[in-house]
Amino acid sequence: MEPNEVNTDIKSAGNYNPLTAEEAWVIEKKGTERPFTGALLDNKAKGVYLCKKCNLPLYRSEDKFESHCGWPSFDNEIEGAVKRIPDPDGRRTEIVCAHCGAHLGHVFLGEGFTSKNTRHCVNSISMKFIPLER
């Protein structure tokens, strides 16, 4: 599935989706939702995960896998959708939406969960899911 197959309305600065206080804390203040509480953790449906703030397609369902870490995990992003930046803690790499800068979570390499050896550990609250229409 390609990002252009999903009907999205990508928002621009000043026109972003409204966020709840909890969403804003994670997405704008770089917080983290409690593990094993996110609405998208156990989602197995086919579709696309979008940025909650701007609607940019971020991940495809076929790249989601079970890592048992407490947050949705993906081993690949949609090309150009996710930006990696050094985390202030000096140990991790933060991932943000390449369009609006929304905090998504962190990326980890070399853990061996999949053949791609990459785990995007993403807060459910940072995304919304659009099911693949049949």
UniProtKB/TrEMBL annotation:
Residues 12-132 form the MsrB domain. Keywords: Metal-binding, Oxidoreductase, Zinc. Its EC number is 1.8.4.12. It is an enzyme of class 1 (oxidoreductase). It catalyses: L-methionyl-[protein] + [thioredoxin]-disulfide + H2O = L-methionyl-(R)-S-oxide-[protein] + [thioredoxin]-dithiol. The keyword Iron does not apply. The keyword Oxidoreductase applies. Its cofactor is Zn(2+). Transmembrane segments: none annotated. InterPro entries: Met_Sox_Rdtase_MsrB (IPR028427), Met_Sox_Rdtase_MsrB_dom (IPR002579), Mss4-like_sf (IPR011057). Coiled coil: none annotated. SUPFAM superfamilies: Mss4-like. This is peptide-methionine (R)-S-oxide reductase. The lineage of its organism: Bacteria, Pseudomonadati, Bacteroidota, Sphingobacteriia, Sphingobacteriales.
